Amino acid sequence: MDATPVSTLVLNPDELGPDPVPGMDLAVKLGIGYLEVRSAEGANAVTLPAERLRHIRALAAERGLAVVALASPLWKWCWPEATPGRVDTFGFPTQVPPGERLGWIERAIRAAVILGAPVVRVFSHLRVEEEWTERFAGDPLLAVALDLADGAGVRLLLENEPVCTVAHVGPLLEVLERYRGQGLGLWLDVANLHEVGQATPDTIRALAPYVGYVHVKDYRPGPGGRRVFCPAGEGAVPYGEVLPLLHAARPALPYALETHVRERPADALTAGAAFVRTAVPGGVA
Fold this sequence. Notes:
Blueprint: E1 8-11, H1 20-29, E2 34-37, E3 39-40, E4 43-44, H2 50-62, E5 66-70, H3 98-115, E6 119-122, H4 140-152, E7 155-159, H5 169-179, E8 185-189, H6 190-195, H7 201-207, E9 211-216, E10 218-221, E11 227-230, H8 239-249, E12 254-257, H9 265-279
Parallel strand pairs: 1-2, 1-12, 2-5, 5-6, 6-7, 7-8, 8-9, 9-12
Antiparallel strand pairs: 3-4, 10-11
Helix pairs in contact: 3-4
């Protein structure tokens, strides 16, 4: 009889700094067996040479850890003529000429293969001036990227990012349904969905069939509309309602801890791991 699939926890080592070792060691300490790679050694992962990526994978393997996701910055970009706002891309340029984009896509897919990561995050173009804002659905490079990913044995997952063009449920469902047959899935950031006012039961049920990966971060409202990041389960994001709904629809998902807490991030990740393990029905491995 086959074992029942279980949900899993994932930790991103760069939450503790540029050296991936402390984050990997924290994962081991917390009993987390899986990693997400976004940046390392002070550079975005897609910019690292192959030997450094192999080194990161070896460091993980020495500790019994596996890389399950590459948090790439693909499509979190705009034309050089556009004016992006404040955007966090972890050392990757935001103004990328169209002629350079395929090279970055190919490089990200190669990085995922080297790391052994089965999924790669993508975004949906930055929202900039109207005349320079690009449409994600119908972007010819998306079809090319999906074919390249399929040939490499990896899957592209779209994150709902408020600074990008596809962040609300309507456009998300439109894009995901359009490209579902080519392998595109959803990298669901619940806090981002809450930020646009759509982390509701109906929205979660609608998006659940497309979800392949879940980002878990939390925040409290701060002065002037700021977000004050805090350990998962201690903020305003309605995880107590959302996580059971997700589990009911998709009982075996990776839940990746993304804290953004600057002071004592290891403590925030520890608290977040404990929270997710209790909030997901049946627990998380």
